[in-house]
Design brief:
binds flavin mononucleotide; binds iron/sulfur cluster; iron-sulfur; six-stranded mixed β-sheet; 12% strand; metal-binding; four-stranded parallel β-sheet; Rossmann fold; 40% helix; Nuo51_FMN-bd; NADH-ubiquinone oxidoreductase-F iron-sulfur binding region domain-containing protein; alpha/beta
């Protein structure tokens, strides 16, 4: 296939960028964790709501309501049999390559350079690793599809857009362990036959950007990146791309458009990006946390990884606990831990009020009510109650918030972030936001109209954003049937 570098010469592309000129400094965050904690600092929340465009989210949900430049120390803890993702963070972080290798980093790359690609893919398949970006797709299967696609060029992309309000795990991996991601990306490139990678990083993480830029320069001068990775004769280059401040930029096809400097809107599928992705080439897109698990799996073997976790959710997962918990912070758990243990033991319960519910996995997942807290944190069990693992953000809401207010806030977010490509989401989400607002203000709305709009979103949206908003609303109806009353 011929190279098709689309969009780079498009003079309109520059104006399509969101927030290009907007400084983040001092701006308050309008994310859902900040909404949950708004009564702790009402002025700051009002300021966040007044921002145009709104800033969502800074990844400081453990000290919400948050503002840029006003970060607090983070509590980090591992409750898995073995720390896969937090080992370096628990020992102070590894921002230099020397520190990273002192802590054992780089061994997986040495193994990968002497392995055939098929063996690397087989190891990832055997580990049972599933994507941590939200959809939980089997990682090995995706790698195999990209490797098998017929093309002379392929790309690897790390999705560091971390758009789910309530999640800050990628931010800390990027800031305190950047070489783990770089190592994971090089190994992915060797496995699928890609010699160029892109790291797509959300604009709301300026510290991560500076740290990752320095790490990339160091990796380049140490020979990890370049025309011959560690003298192996195998090429891998890695470029950092700054995100454009829109939630939908995290959706993988919109993300690829954004890298190509096109308007960041969703592409219809098929074709799948594993065949026709960035610049029309087969492309592997994986989340930061997914890629960060790769070096551990290659070093310790897939069986050790698969021995942790539960059923079809293997290994460990990072959970981000918001500021309403007594012990907010970043936790690594094995899949299968009951949500009650997450809430009561890890989080220490709420620091004020009674629990209304926990939003698990971001705004496109559901709200789990207190009587379902025995549900294990793993894909199948959460899906059976209409919720999902998502990206592991756990936002507790106390009873100073009403369910209708959460619904209104989620749809306000949805209306603001819709990319506008398809009608049910573009026109439906603002209308749903308006209806939910009416409920908050004590009005009666037409339940049938609400349900018809939700059904249109669920069945006819082009991407997971519209469908996710519908699934959120359906989970609310199921677990809080009186929310409209
Ligand atoms: C609206 C929307 C937003 C998304 N945002 C992110 C994101 O911020 N980070 C992420 O890794 N995946 C995000 N995803 C999922 C990606 O499209 C993709 O499935 C993921 O990056 C693949 O990596 P994984 O297989 O390692 O999970 C989003 C999906 C949708 C529909
Ligand atoms: S569902 Fe929403 S975000 Fe997705 S393509 Fe349609 S308008 Fe864009």
């Amino acid at each position: 296939m011929k190279d098709s570098v689309r969009g780079l010469s498009n003079p309109a592309a520059e104006s399509a960028y969101h927030l290009r000129q907007v400084s983040l400094h001092g701006r308050a965050c309008a994310g859902l964790a900040c909404f949950a904690a708004r009564n702790d600092a009402p002025q700051r929340w009002l300021q966040a709501h007044g921002n145009t465009p709104p800033l969502v989210c800074l990844g400081q949900c453990y000290s919400a309501p948050a503002a840029s430049g006003d970060d607090q120390p983070l509590h980090i803890e591992c409750r898995a049999r073995q720390p896969v993702l937090l080992s370096h963070l628990l020992r102070g972080g590894a921002r230099s390559l020397q520190r990273y290798t002192e802590l054992g980093g780089g061994q997986a790359l040495q193994i990968a350079l002497t392995s055939v690609p098929a063996a690397l893919i087989a190891q990832i398949e055997a580990s049972g690793l599933r994507g941590r970006g939200g959809a939980g797709f089997p990682t090995g299967r995706k790698w195999r599809a990209v490797a098998a696609a017929d093309s002379a060029h392929r790309y690897v992309v790390a999705n560091a857009d971390e758009g789910d309000a309530g999640s800050f795990s990628d931010r800390f991996l990027l800031e305190d362990d950047p070489f783990r991601l770089i190592e994971g990306m090089i190994i992915a490139g060797l496995a699928v036959g890609a010699s160029q990678g892109y790291l797509y990083l959300r604009k709301e993480y300026p510290d991560a950007r500076a740290i990752v830029s320095r790490a990339l320069a160091e990796a380049r001068s140490a020979g990890w990146l370049g025309p011959s990775v560690l003298g192996s004769g195998r090429r891998f280059e890695l470029s950092l791309v700054e995100g454009q401040g829109s939630y939908v930029c995290g959706e993988e096809t919109a993300l690829l458009n954004s890298i190509e400097q096109r308007r960041p809107e969703v592409r219809p599928r098929p074709p799948q990006i594993t065949e026709f992705g960035l610049y029309g080439r087969p492309t592997l897109v994986n989340n930061v946390e997914t890629l960060c698990a790769v070096p551990w799996i290659i070093t310790h073997g897939p069986a050790a990884y698969a021995a942790m976790g539960d059923a079809d959710s293997r290994g460990t997962k990072l959970l981000s606990l918001n500021s309403l918990f007594r012990h907010p912070g970043l936790y690594e758990i094995e899949f299968g831990m009951p949500l009650r243990t997450v809430v009561d033991t890890l989080g220490g319960g709420l620091r004020r009020g009674n629990l209304l519910g926990v939003m698990v996995g971001g705004p496109l997942a559901g709200l789990v009510p207190p009587d379902l807290l025995d549900t294990p944190f793993e894909h199948t069990a959460l899906e059976s109650i209409g919720c999902s693992v998502g990206h592991g953000g756990i936002i507790a809401f106390s009873d100073d918030t009403r369910v209708a207010e959460i619904v209104a806030e989620v749809f306000r977010f949805g209306a603001g972030e819709s990319c506008g490509k398809c009608t049910p989401c573009h026109l439906g989400s603002p209308e749903l936001a308006r209806l939910a607002r009416e409920v908050v203000e004590g009005g009666q709305i037409n339940r049938q109209r609400w349900q018809a709009l939700i059904a249109a979103l669920q069945y006819t949206s082009l991407c997971g954003f519209g469908r996710g908003l519908a699934e959120f609303a359906l989970a609310i109806e199921r677990h809080y049937p009186h929310w409209l009353d």
